[in-house]
Design a protein that fits this description.
The chain is α+β, with helices and mostly antiparallel strands. The protein has helices at residues 32-42, 56-69, 102-110, 164-172, 234-243, 262-269, 281-302, and strands at residues 2-6, 26-27, 30-31, 47-51, 72-77, 82-87, 119-121, 129-133, 136-140, 158-163, 189-197, 200-208, 213-219, 230-233, 250-255. It folds into three domains: 2-69, no CATH class; 72-147, DNA Polymerase III, subunit A, domain 2 (DNA Polymerase III, Chain A, domain 2), CATH 3.10.150.10; 158-275, DNA Polymerase III, subunit A, domain 2 (DNA Polymerase III, Chain A, domain 2), CATH 3.10.150.10.
């Protein structure tokens, strides 16, 4: 599908602010035209015709710079998790999009010599994707880009950040209670939501398999107020734990206005217990280990 973009205006109303060509005025650090083209690509537009007249050479120079600096974006998904990786410093001779068999592409690149320069070329349509590196050359069959499922388009209304250590703690202290029973899908993850403790806002993580329940709270990060409750699936929890295992970076979290599984999770948390006890961790651990050994011995005797 082709789109026509009108970008030849004189920009007379902007003269008091800037002398930059109207379509190239920066918005949040990037030219307005670049934002338009990116939105067109996300909408499935494969070709854009720029109708430029005034300072057309500036538009052409800017597009060349954008193509050179754009890098390569790789997206993969199994319909549960979507991963997007951007590789900067890639020379883009002809911008475009295509698909590729991930496992085959990975094995081919992995077996190339260290430091080999890789060239990917796809003319468009149903043509195969050409991969060249030195004297090595091959072609990979592709599927239509329109058939690739998109799970990452658009901006989500809720966004906040928290240290990797905090997210790691939330996961480590709750994941053991995640249910593995597929029929109770609303228990197959960690229920993450905003709550209150003694009037103070908190970010609460809860997991349960119906027999045990783990609940951990951390101060509510800025920007998380009003976020709906969501269940982070068990598979996503495992990937997150692997990615942030040794990281100290700030982790960005985006959320939608859609509450997933919240009614069932809230039902399990309804009410409160009148029983509360404070115990020493080391002594309790010793007692529990002794009980576990005794129970294991009784089980073997029964068998």
């Amino acid at each position: 599908m082709r789109a026509y973009v009108l970008c030849g205006g004189f920009g007379t109303r902007l003269r008091s602010v800037t002398d930059t060509q109207k379509a190239l005025v920066p918005v949040h650090g990037e030219p307005f035209l670049a934002r338009v083209l990116r939105q067109l690509a996300r909408a499935g537009i494969s070709e854009a015709v720029l109708c430029a007249h005034y300072r057309a050479e500036q538009v052409a120079e800017q597009l060349a710079a954008l193509a050179h600096d754009a890098g390569l974006r790789l997206t993969a998904t199994d319909m549960e998790i979507a991963v997007v990786e951007e590789i900067p410093g890639v020379t883009v001779a002809r911008p475009g999009r295509t698909t590729a068999p991930a496992a085959t592409l990975y094995e081919m690149v992995r077996n190339l010599p260290e430091g080999a320069k890789i060239e990917l070329d796809h003319p468009g349509g149903d043509a195969p994707l050409a991969l060249r590196a030195g004297r090595f050359a091959t072609s990979l069959m592709v599927l239509p880009v329109e058939d690739f499922p998109s799970m990452t388009d658009g901006k989500l209304p809720h966004r906040f950040t928290l240290p990797a250590g905090v997210l790691r703690d939330l996961i480590d202290r709750t994941r053991f209670a995640i249910s593995t029973e597929e029929t109770r899908y609303y228990l197959n993850g960690i229920y993450l939501h905003a709550g209150e403790v003694d009037g103070a806002p908190v970010l609460r993580a809860v997991a349960t398999d119906g027999h045990r329940l783990a609940r951990v709270e951390e101060p509510l990060p800025e920007g998380a107020k009003g976020m709906p409750g969501v269940i982070v699936p068990r598979k996503t929890v495992g990937e997150l734990q692997r990615l942030i295992e040794t990281s100290d970076a700030e982790i960005g979290v985006d959320g939608t206005d859609l509450s997933i599984g919240q009614p069932e999770a809230d039902r399990l948390l309804a009410g409160s217990s009148q029983l509360r006890a404070s115990v020493r961790r080391d002594e309790t651990g010793t007692v529990l280990r002794s009980l576990d050994l005794t129970a294991d011995g009784l089980r073997r005797a029964a068998e």
